[in-house]
Amino acid sequence: MKHPDGPKTPTWRQTFHLVKDPLGYMETVTQEYGDTFTLQFLFVPTVFVSNPQGMQQIFTNTKEITAPGELNQFVAPLVGDNGLLLLDGNRHKHRRKLLMPAFHGDRIRAYGQRICDITEKVMRQQPLGEPVSMLAILDDICLRIILEVVFGLRETEARYEAFRKVIPALLNLSLSPAMDFCFSFPLLQQDLGQWSPWGRFRHLMQQFDQLIYAEIADRRQHPNLVDDRSDILSELVTACDETGKPMTDSEIRDLFPSLVFAGRKPPLRPIAWALYWVHQLPDVRDNLLRELSEQGNSTDPMQLLQLPYLTAVCNEALRIYPTQTITFPRRVESPIEVNGYELSPGTIVRGNIYLAHQREDVYPNPKQFRPERFLERQFSSYEFLPFGGGARRCPGEVLSIFEMKLTLATLLSHYQLELSDRQPEKPQRRGVTFPPGGGLKMVIDRLN
């Protein structure tokens, strides 16, 4: 059996296409080489798999195919040495387990009304009857949710405003093309002052660290601050590591960059796309508004979460532009057959989530936004996996879906939104995300 084939073009040209138009290039390659192929991804030969059987193999054969943290070392400057992406084995499992209570049960219920209230508060500040960028508005909503739900900050606190300035600056810089190269090539990580990409990044990271370490110190020195709050930071300040000892400040800090990305950028993009398609397709809009109106005056977040058509709309938005377009890298440790190909030890493997969601045999007419497909059948975790899969699946998945549903339901229940431009929105690459390139311009009017 042979190794998966792929384009024969020079490495630099493959990299150029992946940077310029990764989604289009992936589709072109799979049309020629099938659903299992090899690309020079960031100058490393990488096997991409996009059919359900292959996905299952790379997620379940955990002895033959591992997901070592060292393969994610390029993000260490952002997430820290104790970030989830860099941890392995029991430490990784334990840290994920520490985060789980914050995303389940009474904790997640407590977040619901806060998410709805934040959405309504931001929308009340918007001008009515004139075009505005819903992408920017959603950005603000998601950032406020991060500050209040993840960090447990209150708007009246001075540190709230400081975080509100540094986090967008840090995230926007981290998602820029210049930083893509800096993260990929350590030789470019030269601090030449704030006018250089790496110098600016280091300056912002120092600001972020000062703020979060000060907040951790306050929670430790004033336990009543922890008792009075329901947020993820407070949970971690009182948590213990895998040895039973309290977590250090740096260990707590290193969990937060990943949560900031998981809590802000992933839900932002699918909410924007869901709004776009809902208002582009009258039948989808009518069906969703009918379901929401049947709730009457009920604003119980937990009831909203159970609405089937709202769930289907969110899932369809996540299908077309998933929060992860490819999985984090895996490495073959011993010979294994995947999709009829023999993969040798040392081979790097990634699941191609975007292409998996575009399969005609699983999702007929995959380019069409059709929520009904999620009402007609249940897809396996190897067919629908917008947050990745296996050991590196996004730990903030529950909060992201929660945020997406409640924000969308709140917007449509209280506001009439209309697209100000009927020209089709096209995805624009922002780091690993693909939000609407036109900013999603809409006109807002209040319903009640």
Please explain how this structure is put together.
It is a single chain. The chain is 52% helix and 9% strand. The chain is an alpha+beta fold and 448 residues long. The chain has a single domain, classed as Orthogonal Bundle (Cytochrome p450). The strands form three sheets. A five-stranded mixed beta sheet has the order 1-2-8-5-3. A three-stranded antiparallel beta sheet has the order 4-10-9. Helix 6 (105-124) runs antiparallel to helix 7 (134-150), helix 6 packs parallel to helix 19 and helix 13 (249-280) packs across helix 16.
The pLDDT mean sits at 88
Strand order of the largest sheet: 1-2-8-5-3
Please mark out the parts with pLDDT under 50 across 5 or more consecutive residues, or reply none: none
CATH superfamily: Cytochrome P450
Number of domains: 1
What is the total tally of β strands? 10
Describe how the helices and strands are arranged.
Blueprint: H1 11-20, H2 22-33, E1 36-41, E2 44-49, H3 52-60, E3 65-66, H4 76-79, H5 89-99, H6 105-124, E4 131-133, H7 134-150, H8 158-174, H9 177-184, H10 197-221, H11 223-227, H12 232-237, H13 249-280, H14 282-293, H15 301-305, H16 308-320, E5 330-332, E6 336-338, E7 341-343, E8 348-351, H17 353-356, H18 373-376, H19 397-414, E9 415-419, E10 441-446
Helix pairs in contact: 1-2, 6-7, 6-19, 7-13, 8-10, 10-13, 13-14, 13-16, 13-19
